[in-house]
Specification:
- The chain is mainly alpha-helical.
- Among the domains are: 48 residues, no CATH class; 93 residues, Orthogonal Bundle (DNA polymerase, domain 1); 122 residues, Orthogonal Bundle (hpI Integrase, Chain A), CATH 1.10.443.
- It is 47% helix and 9% strand.
- A hairpin with a 7-residue loop joins strand 6 and strand 7.
- Helix 7 packs parallel to helix 11.
- The radius of gyration is 33 Å and the shape is elongated.
Amino acid sequence: MSRPRTPIGTFGDISFQTMPSGQVRARVRFRDDDGQLRQVTATGTSRRKAETTLKSKLLERPEQLRGTGELTPDTPFPKLAEIWLAELDAEGHLSTSTRQLYERDLATIVLPAFEHYTLREISISKVDRFLKAQATLSYSRAKHAKLVLSLCLGLALRWEAIARNPVAGTTRLRKPPTAATSLTAAQVEAIRRAARGWRRSGGLVGPKPDGQLEAIIEVMLGTSARIGEALAIRKCDVDVTSTPATVRICGTVVSPKGMATYRQDHPKTSRSSRTVAVPSFTAQVLRLRLAALADEDPEHLIFHSRNHTPLTTANVRRRLRAILAEAGITGVTPHSFRRTVATVIDRASGADLAAEMLGHTSSRITKLHYIEPNERVNPLTAQILESLAPQGTADQTADEPGTD
């Protein structure tokens, strides 16, 4: 019959031995975190002091042995950061752009604050002060820093190099109140005029615009697509033979650092893949684009560079900024068109349909970030409240002085 195994982290009876010097040695067999039984000793001037010293050593021992691989409580934070990034690459579930964003935030925001600390020295109070300092600069900066630091220290927690993730105990970040703003019909028309007229007057040096930006604007207004999603639309994603015409949104254009821009075969989220019916003004520009690409492969992008490579979102944004600045229009980005679509649909049919159009998992996100608040209460309330009118109003008015 096998002997029962001592549970990890426990010890048996303590034995004592008086040394020739008069010191007392306490000795015990302790089963460590790796499952091995080891003898632990301590000395003191008396049995009680030797036992107290021994128990103190035993209490510290699990932490000393914790993370016996690459990570321990004394591992410098930069080493943890290096291992964490390697883990992300090994898992391979992040998009290239997200992986690069994490690395950038880690290098520019988090590492400068914690590079001289070991893991045991990163306390809740240190992390809390750090995040509050970032929040004074920008809510977005603090949010990004908190996410990256939490994920990084989460790895140390899983590898048992720390007892808890200090980020979990910090003060909740409060996002400053903001309200989504959409474009009015007049503003949309002004943007269209500015795009149509840009660099088309005589005497200008260089090639004239090819008309793609104007078409991109109409596609974003008609599909609610993000800029990267609009640039990723292929010939095979468009059906102008149906009524109404439809567009399949199932990819996005990305430009990873150090790599060529390419079409990613999925959009931002799984829910973002969708087929949307488009209005006539969007269908018209898509017909023109399809006609221009009649001899191209079905996989060819609707919008492309002169070399038939994907357009970058950065270049399209830069071109839009230049056009709007010349026209004196400020505060408009490609995302403004997406908010405008959400607001128009919400006013007509509610937030649920707007969320479906934008590819959101719930209307809460749409309401919070995309739909412009409607401060005008339904005028039906006036009719309903007529029931509270004072009785005999007409007679009182006739009896007032100065009335006929």
